[in-house]
Amino acid sequence: IRGVSHVARGEVREGLDDLEAARELARTSDSVMLRYRVNASDVMTLLGRYEDAIGIGEAGTRRARELGVERTSGAMLFSNTVEALLALGDWKRAEALLGPALALDAPPGFRVHLQRMRLWLSVWKGEVSTAVDLVRGWRGGMLVQSEIEMQSRLGFARVDAEIALAQGDLESAW
């Protein structure tokens, strides 16, 4: 977490050094290694190193499946992988991952990240009405999670703004 925080503050070298130390420490524990992969794939996306994020995420999702934690740690890794794919404009591959990941019916704290990726994909593909319908169906769970976790609150605020922009509603987007 300290490595992620360093990178978010612009202290990239320190953050990457912390992540490397975390990777070394995590070698003896599958659950800790999965957490490392969640954080490392997120950092790689923050840094624009999308291929690295995808590689870390895919390796993590495979291991999560093997360990039987695909609905929790795996869901986060799917989400991080899809985010990097979206950044690269690889919508087809992102959609291919999202369908099965959403079908896992992960617990709400994990599912909301996948839902946010699905909404972004819909908006960016120009399927705004699909995004609006999905938001209506998911709003309750998204709002609950947004009250618990700032990352979810900010992520959904961004998606809501993008939907409003796509609809030409600048006031709501603002």
Task: Give a brief outline of the structure.
The chain has 174 residues and is an all-alpha fold. It has helices spanning 2-8, 12-26, 30-46, 50-67, 73-88, 91-103, 108-124, 128-148, 150-166, 170-173.
What are the main properties of this structure?
mainly alpha; 174 residues; 10 helices
- Uncertain segments are none
Figure out the total of helices. Answer: 10
**What is the H/E string?**
HHHHHHHHHH
Q: What is the first-to-last residue Cα distance?
A: 31 Å
Tell me the structural class.
Answer: mainly alpha
Which radius of gyration do the C-alpha atoms yield? 16 Å
Shape: globular
- The proportion of residues in beta strands is under 5%
Query: How does the major sheet shape up?
Result: none
User: Taking all residues together, what is the mean pLDDT?
Assistant: 91
Secondary structure: number of strands? 0
Helix content: over 70%
